[in-house]
Amino acid sequence: MRRVTLRRPRLPRTRRGQRRLVQAVMAGCVLALSPSAWMYTTTGDRLRTADEVPRTDVAVVFGAGLWDGEPSPYLAHRLDAAAELYRRGRVEVVLVTGDNSREDYDEPDAMRGYLTRHGVPDGRIVSDYAGFDTWDSCVRAKKIFGVDEAVLISQGFHIRRAVALCGAAGIESYGVGVDAVHDATWYYGGAREILAAGKAALDAVFRPDPRFLGPREPGVERALGEAG
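^ ElyC/SanA/YdcF family protein, sequence as received from the core. Prediction below:
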C-alpha cells in the first residue's frame, strides 16, 4: 500500500507575500464578524429589562425546545418572563411561536399550557404553529398576525438577533433578555449565534418568504379586542 503524506501549507517567504496573507486573514475576520457587528449596531438601544420595557400590546415568545412534551428550562424562563409582563400589565397578548412540523412535537401548545398554568388567560394567548426559525416567526408575526409593535422575549445570546430580524420584517420591537444558567447549552447557543448572525444578515437583505406563510389570521386582533 502506498503511503500518502500530507504536505504542510507553505507560508510566504517574502515580506510582500506575508503582508498579503495577513491582510487576507484580517479581511476574512472582518467579513465573519460584520454580521454580529450589524446586529449590535441595529439593536443597541432596543434591549430593556422587564422593569424598563415600554408598555406594548403584544409580547412574542420564541420556541426553545421541549423536554418530554413540556417546555425546556430555557423556554420556561422565556415564558415566565412573558407571564410576569402580563401580570404587571405591560402586555395584553402573548404570541407564542414555535415548531409544530410533526404531530408528536408541538411547541406552541406546550407554551400555551405553561402560560395558562402561570396565570395568563387562554384567550390572551395566540399560537403560531409555523415559527420554524427566528426569521419565519418575525415575518409571520407581521404578515399573518398583523403585529406592528412587540416586546420580544428570549435568552440574552439570542435576543439581539430576534430584535434585528423583527425590525427587518417591519416590527418595531424591544427585546427582553432573560437570565440563563451558563451551562453547556448556553455556551453552545452563544457560539451558534456567530454562525446564525450570517444567516440573519442574509435574511434581512434578501427577505425570503417563510417556509410556510398561509392566510392572514385574526388571532392577535381578536385577543386585543377581548382585552379592551
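The chain is about 50% helix and 15% strand.
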